Amino acid sequence: MLLKKLSAAVLLAAISTTATAAAQSPEHHTDDAQDCKACHTSGDNFKPVAVNASCQQCHEGLPGEGRLIAAMRKQTQAESDDGTDNGMSLPLYYAESRLGDRPNEMIRIPAGEFIMGSNNRLSDEGPEHIATTAEYLIDKFEVTNLQYKKYIDDAGRRAPKHFVRREVPEGKADHPVTFVSWFDAEKYCAWAGKRLPTEQEWEKAARGSDGRIFPWGNLFSIGMANTPVRWDEMKQEGDTSPVGAFRRGVSPYGLYDMSGNVWEWVDAWYKGHPGNENRSENFGEIYRVLKGGSWWDCSFYKCGISAPAFNRSFFNPRVKNSSFGFRCAKDVE
Q1: How many CA atoms lie within 13 A of 274 on its CB side?
Q2: For residues 298 and 252, what is the distance between their CA atoms, to the nearest angstrom?
Q3: Measured distance between the N- and C-terminal CA atoms of the chain, rounded to whole angstroms
Q4: Which of 57, 71, 254, 309 lies most in the core, judged by the most C-beta atoms within 10 Å?
Q5: CB atoms < 10 A from the CB of 136, how many?
Q6: Could you write out the DSSP letters of every residue in 153-211?
């Protein structure tokens, strides 16, 4: 499955799509160096492959997960066109909002088919299949702190945990709002005359119709999105970033931060995709789906590869934390 005689670009895409699967294997993440055969000749971890010299090109000399990350870093160092640090086109914090407190600008997504899901990673992300949506509108950006403050003031709602005396944290007016539950997100969208996107709508807007892995293409790069790998590379504590700061990570339809920054609630129960034969005990009308990954997700995903557009997370809809946010959608009238 992985690390055959591929070009560097294809090889990296394969590494990025399988790194998360590796996170499920304790053996793969021990401190002692494991040779390739430990994970790649047993069906317990990856599909069996023939281990050969090409495996050593990316995996030799580092233990477990570290080998995947080292290979990724070696081939994905990127700077933005304007030379800002690791892909950001804006300062991390600034005083005045550039977007204001009105609900987000929306982008029209055409009706039609697209490729959804994946056969190459976690079982709940498959199988890859053709899905269809009607025409719809979806926010260009994640809902910001300042936009959410306008809502809580107008609607008399409770402020998120990170607000101070109902005020937006200093310098973070245009950062995505966090510490919001699925119910909070649903209520904001309704107040704005919108709704939460379905999982199909979200994935299509992030991925386009060509089946790409990431919003920007098939090659992972730390310069395209606000991900844990990026913060780790810079040796800094992570945080949210202003929405729209990663211009080169834009989706085919022109949406920003569809990978990284914050996980986004969608209007979907956590159920299997059509044709999924892995009947998880967690499937059903219990948990709600989040999409897109975030600036912080290493507790489960280890090396932080939650960037693919087909990625799914699931939580109780009442959960609130520092990496959950949302954007809204709307039917075309």
Answers
A1: 8
A2: 27
A3: 45
A4: 309
A5: 22
A6: HHHTPPPPTT-BTTBPPTT-TTSBP-S--HHHHHHHHHHTT-BPPPHHHHHHHHHTTTT
Domain with CATH 3.90.1580.10 in the chain: 84-333
Q: Which CATH class is domain 84-333?
A: alpha beta
Place of tokens 């060509």: 210
Query: Which spans in the chain are helix H?
Result: 8-22, 37-40, 53-59, 64-76, 145-155, 182-191, 199-207, 228-234, 298-301
DSSP character string of 13-31: HHHHHHHHHHTT-GGGG-S
pLDDT range class, residue 224, cuts 50, 70, 90: very high
| CA pseudo-torsion sign 255, 258, 264, 265 | positive
Residues in the chain: 333
Q: How far is CA 128 from CA 19, 123, 312, in A?
A: 18, 11, 13
pLDDT greater than 90 at residue 163: yes
Torsions phi, psi for 332 (to 5 deg): -85, 125
CA 23, distance to chain mean position in Å, is: 16
Query: From the CB of residue 94, how many other CB atoms can be counted at a distance below 10 Å?
Result: 13
State residue 306's pLDDT score: 74
Q: What are the C-alpha distances in Å from 211 to residues 16, 23, 111, 117, 310?
A: 15, 24, 16, 9, 9
